[in-house]
Amino acid sequence: MKISARNQIPGTVKSIKKGPVSTEVVITIGGGHEMVSSITTHSAESLKLKEGSKVYAIVKASEVMVGTD
Question: What whole-number distance in Å separates Cα of residue 59 and Cα of residue 20?
Fold first, then answer.
């Protein structure tokens, strides 16, 4: 698979919470860090995701927001 996004972070699926429309996927990326992605349930099923699956967290964003209390 080749894609244009440069931020491709290898990881392992830690957990999956399926909903009727969207699915939350928690990915362990090493060093005790995790990334969480919300994807469509259809996509999660098409990718055949399960706990322990080796995946890539692919980040492509046009802006990053920062907030404080």
Answer: 24
pTM score, two decimals? 0.84
Q: Which residue has the tokens 């099923």?
A: 45
The string of pLDDT tens digits covering residues 14-36 is 999 999 999 999 999 999 999 99
Answer yes or no: are the C-beta atoms of 32 and 50 closer than 8 Å.
Answer: no
Residue 21 φ/ψ, nearest 5 degrees: -120, -45
3-state secondary structure of 45: helix
Per the structure block, which two tokens stand in for 29? 């990326």
Q: List domains and CATH numbers for the chain.
A: 7-59 (2.40.50.100)
